[in-house]
Amino acid sequence: MGWDGSENSPRVLVFTEYRHTQDALAAVLAKDFKLKHSDKFEDQATQTLAVIHGSVPEIITTLFTIQTIDALFDRPIFVTTNFVERSGVPKASAKRILRALQDKGVRMAVRESSGRRPAILMFRELIALAEGQS
Description:
This protein folds into two domains: 12-55, no CATH class; 57-130, Winged helix-like DNA-binding domain superfamily/Winged helix DNA-binding domain (Arc Repressor Mutant, subunit A). The chain is of the alpha+beta class. The longest helix is centred in the N-terminal third of the chain and has 14 residues, at 19-32. The chain contains six helices and five strands; from the N terminus they run βαβααβααββα. The radius of gyration is 16 Å and the shape is globular. The strands form two sheets. The chain has a three-stranded antiparallel sheet. It has a two-stranded parallel ribbon with strand order 1-2. The protein is 42% helix and 13% strand.
């Protein structure tokens, strides 16, 4: 894969709908491609193959789980209105989902809302792993 640990090294981020599936997939990929792999969170940033810990279905149970995952991966830095448009999730449900994700530490505000200016939100763990940070 050509991974040397630099910022420009390619990375494989494993994120599936369920935690058990992503752990199993990561183990198989590591074995088949002879990649060093640990499932410990603190090791993720230093590996070619990284697993995003904690899947969305473990945090939220909704009919909109797949749409939520797709929207977060499509644009991990967003405002609520963009999330609603991209995901197709009704606004009230989207706000409830985003609040649940915030409560579990999956997303965070980059900029808090102020008056008519919306908050800018970020899928923190995806950004950190993509940048090789823990």
